[in-house]
Specification:
Layout (H helix, E strand, L loop, with lengths): L7 E2 L24 E8 L2 E9 L11 H4 L2 E3 L2 E5 L5 E4 L1 H14 L7 H14 L11 E10 L12 E10 L7 E5 L17 H5 L2 H9 L4 E5 L7 E4 L3 E6 L2 E5 L9 H12 L4 E4 L3 H9 L3 E8 L3 E11 L2 E4 L7 H14 L9 E3 L1
Parallel strand pairs: 1-3, 9-10, 9-16, 13-14
Antiparallel strand pairs: 2-3, 2-8, 4-7, 5-6, 5-7, 6-18, 7-8, 10-11, 12-13, 12-15, 15-16, 16-17
Length: about 350
Amino acid sequence: MSQAFKIEVKKTEKSRLSETDLNHLPFGKVFTDHMLVADYKNGNWEKIEILPYGPIALDPSATVFHYGQEIFEGIKAFHNQDGNDYIFRPDMNWKRFNTSAERLCMPTVPQEIFIDGLRQLIDVDRAWIPTAAEHSLYIRPFMIATQAFLGVHPAQEYKFIIILSPSGPYFAKPAAIKIEKHFTRAAKGGVGFSKNGGNYAASLKATEVAEAEGYDQVLWTAPNEHEYVQEVGAMNVMFVIDGKVVTPELDGTILAGVTRDSVITVLKELGYTVEERKVSVQELIDAYKNGHLTEAFGTGTAAVISPIGKLGLAEDAIVNFDVEKFKIANEIKAKMNEIRLGLVPDSHNWLVKI
């Protein structure tokens, strides 16, 4: 840790851990005892502290409330079979976080604060890491604009915060996904590739409509013609067509998922053909009707590998998959778990020991 970014630790007087059942956790509703907070003022990061988890005070005119300068990331820590605790590829999240920051005219966060900071925070709250199957410690770094003023231009003051949430699986059952052909999430030249709150706020209405129709989330399509698929709200998406894994290309409208990148790497090592390209709705409909669309699944930090049990492509093309028969999705899920748990060598050095 650089002396320029010394982190002060102020521990809570009373832990809430004894009140928490780590074997039966919902996703994102339980939080640990501490959080990391850093302030950005006068062009510098300062006052970096690990504090008891709790509310933060902001001026009502803080620009995050009015102009939406806010970004975040999602990472996981977990207990490995060797008895140690690890984070999965935090360097990728740090780089993506700063890519988002640059797009929204926010300051970048040094690695010493982002990665070393979250390692120190997790070390303080290490006892909160669950060991039950499909459970992990979800890590949420985020940054908000805090300068008090009204006016449309970048703020000069920010807070960077990391909170921790011991969590169970994001999807408790196979997901039901509907192709979205009315609402739009992102267009080229926009902020679709960045992980900012505005992208998710804009998705809520479409998801609400889909839920009323019996679906969990929507699969976004490119604007205007709504011809090509993009991503699902909480994850990237992959399809198995004629034995090949097909996934939408990174064209600036979808998130460059860390899990997506990892899965593509491992799939190729397992001998599968992976095509990153444009994927049209019509191609999926034709593949379904011809019997060539055999699997669909999502990849994401929260969802990990999530099988899609129902895929609504069109009124006359609603696919109901038997996810138990998925070959590639189940194989890659097992393989990713083996890497995460240390059951196979970490040949890519993806695991960072805490």
